Amino acid sequence: MSEPDPADWIEKWGNTLALAGCHVCDAIYLIPYDKAPLTCPLCAQGELLLLDEEADRPVYTQPPELAVPFSVPQDKKTRILKQFLSSIWIKPDDLKLDRLNDRAQSVYLPMWLVDADVQAQWWAETGYNYEVISHREQYQRDQWRTQRVRETKIRWEPRAGRLQRHYDNKTAPALEEHDAFARQLGWYRLEEAEPYRPEIAQTALVRLPNRPPDDAWPEAQTALRQAAQEECRQAAAADHIREFRWTAEFANPNWTQLLLPLYTTWYQDDDGRPQMVYLHGQTGKLYGRRRASLKKARRYALVMLALAALAGAFALFFFLLGLFIAPGILALATLGFLAALFFGILAIVPVGLAWYTNRTEKFNELHRLARDTAVLHDQKAAPQ
Ligand SMILES: [Zn+2]
Question: How many angstroms is it from 44 CA to the middle of ligand 1?
């Protein structure tokens, strides 16, 4: 099969890329044309199948501008995955380092970059540091001593002005799940971003936005406002600024994309469900669900129970033998009973541990869900 001509909008990303989608989580990607089909790197449940670039053209196809490079060395990634493995006591059969490494994918997550012209009237209080020298009397070693104390205070002054500026590359989330990722994995050092080159999309899959610019515009405005506030502080040669208010008009907004690096991999739990493991592409911070294997724990428990039964049977045999034939052998019966008790207790431990691991993880998930819901409510309740 020959390589099809990519659509115009994809050309800006690189002419060897193709549009692909996951039918399970609906994520849309740009992937190197020859790599399809692939397992979806963000849900591991669906396959990425090639889509028609024009008929299935995504709504938001703004071109890439910057990318934060992947910067976690392989040995560090392996060390972090090993730590994750060793934190789960009774692992599902599928949870192995080589499988995690084999399934690892590099994915770029999108963020919006907004340029805009801003015209605004602004009001604020600007703060200026000044030093106060005072003297403090202290009674030390039978006499009063005077101590010079230097203190920094802030003088606040009201200011107002007009502002007419062009701002570049203010960020806003381009994925619905952006905040959830950020909370689990932490923020990115955006100052390390480099201009986008088509080669970088050869080594990673690029996730396309699922959040329209209209939705992201309030966050972009917040970023523009912060930039304006900082500029007003500098223009007033002030050390601080507070109570910043503005009435602003925006013109010529231009939307492009910033790409954030993420490593993903997965393992199957007892029920064959994929459990995702994510690594921050700059810091290597890991987020993954810890699922212990109850099946394996039950197998261990059955072995221990069988040993307990065996030891119990021997104990009974020696007990009867000692009672009727050789009284000296009764000590062996006691030993047998103790062994049966020991294996009996050991049978409970693995099941208890696996159950505890999964229950703690479930509790943490519910906690996170409750917190995310609370954050959503807060955002809805906050005045626009
Ligand atoms: Zn998917």
Answer: 6
